[in-house]
């Protein structure tokens, strides 16, 4: 009893030593160097983006309300920003890591993010937001654990495994950018990576020799939590494990009604947690598969990720054909129904002890409606661009939030239309005027021929409805007003719509974008400005002291940037970051020891 009561005290005690700061919520520190690394995931040598020599990058594993400090050193040869997909940055869009709020970190320069994972739980990921860099990696997982006082609606799993799936091109991000800048499509990807690795050689016709694959080692009879993220460019993937049911338990911060699936479609930028019990007889290893959706399987066979689930008592290698996914190239009804079946567990607590269903989103009056329409790429001023409601977003030279802070005028217009424009598509920096404490309905209408996913920074939105055809006022009759999931990334099928509801309670400038990297790069995004009309420093945190300056404000930069020698050469191990890690662990151990001695004394 006594030791249990000491536990929270104990943590705060340690963290205050580490941070030299006595604020209530613990601090967690990360020291990252972002650099190139030479590997050949699909047999073709390429430079991927690694962090501290890891590809995918290190896991951010924290607990609700922790303060997270990440010191990022940019050892790439181009500008960098890291964005924290799904982290809500309450009152703090300054740390969001997108061009609307941050100046980029120049090469050979470091910048420290500091944010609190306030009032949220769940599985998310981070990635580099500029210059198409995500196509070369730089991503990693984020886990926000429940505080100890709040029950998780399932037994503690025996293990926790993060899995990244995503389409992959053998060209690097600079070459892919050139293709897009040249007005061309990227074409078919060369494969699908699972945790940065190529497919297991399940068939020599499709997988050449010498490809390294991922293996998940498990114990028979145990249950694991698998956190699966689609970090790819634009391919929807079907995830499945041979002979095993995957029980959906959480998506992007919402505990779901548990439901067994044999396979689930995971669209670009989406995250899901599954509980998987190792209940098979281990006669062989089992395949873990991520295959491209809604494509001709004969042509796309190579675009399949294959990893291995290995029981410790396995009697042999996996062999034979892969387990089949849904066989419906042109019919998206199965996938749409599958998505609609995902519901919130309304009686579970999450970041707070009150049930997730206690915020009755279906009973709140909508204050504003936006219909955002995606169309196939078009030519604007001689360039191939994508649009949202007829506007192709252009980043100004000065971040929107920073421009406002310094009263720099003319960087954007606050006139994004409620209905799609009907005239000729145009370029612009048009921003949505979001009313603070308003409750808005956003209808995402996809008039293109491929699935798009949409994401909003700073918020989780309620997925109210999804259907084929053109949305009309009558479509509201089909909304789920009770147990739709609150998440940050939602798919919109081609020739279909998805409706989401958002409570605008988080002040700042928030990016609303397609997660499909090619459409995003070509202009399919917008920002939502949410301002408390009463100026104070309570609803939004002030500009951080270390803010970088650029554009109209670049003369404020102290010290001016002068490139230094690169610490990390591609392909070599980083001695320094490992040593840093070791000394931090030593320091932590010393403090732990000290704390134990003080408490017992
Ligand atoms: C990308 O690949 C091209 C060759 O196709 C090479 O010239 C370029 O340096 C590479 N860029 C990076 C960042 O690795
Ligand atoms: C995350 O950290 C917690 C302790 O805070 C630990 O129990 C858990 O095993 C860690 N999870 C992973 C996946 O490392
Ligand atoms: C971040 O890392 C760089 C490079 O290791 C170091 O020079 C800098 O002092 C660190 N900054 C902070 C705030 O820890
Ligand atoms: C890290 O950034 C700080 C503040 O911007 C700067 O003083 C320091 O020289 C930088 N260190 C490196 C190694 O870039
Ligand atoms: C590999 O795939 C080809 C083409 O589908 C098929 O004919 C062959 O039987 C497969 N080989 C094995 C070992 O499964
Ligand atoms: C999922 O399947 C397992 C194993 O068949 C079963 O024990 C469990 O009750 C199922 N869960 C649900 C929610 O249907
Ligand atoms: C294991 O299960 C498979 C499939 O259910 C079955 O074909 C096989 O005979 C079983 N093997 C053993 C050793 O029980
Ligand atoms: C898939 O492609 C193959 C080869 O080009 C073609 O024969 C087949 O008809 C296509 N299947 C569908 C469903 O379009
Ligand atoms: C919503 O609007 C209706 C009619 O305009 C009004 O009667 C009702 O009180 C409002 N509900 C809330 C929760 O404000
Ligand atoms: C933005 O909305 C607020 C109300 O929320 C309104 O007062 C203001 O005039 C609007 N600004 C513009 C430029 O439309
Ligand atoms: C796009 O919109 C046009 C005009 O409303 C319609 O005819 C067409 O079927 C739509 N296409 C898709 C893929 O939604
Ligand atoms: C908010 O904080 C900033 C910087 O700390 C300060 O300059 C400003 O006056 C504050 N504004 C208000 C309304 O308190």
UniProtKB/TrEMBL annotation:
Keywords assigned by UniProt, alphabetized: Cell membrane, Copper, Glycoprotein, GPI-anchor, Lipoprotein, Membrane, Metal-binding, Signal
Signal peptide range in chain numbering: 1-23
Its membrane topology: Lipid-anchor; GPI-anchor
InterPro entries: Cu-oxidase-like_N, Cu-oxidase_2nd, Cu-oxidase_C, Cu-oxidase_fam, Cupredoxin
Record has Kinase as a keyword: no
A GO molecular-function descriptor: oxidoreductase activity
Subcellular location: Cell membrane
Domain Plastocyanin-like span(s) in chain numbering: 34-147, 160-314, 398-534
Protein name from the UniProt record: Monocopper oxidase-like protein SKU5
Organism encoding this protein: Aquilegia coerulea
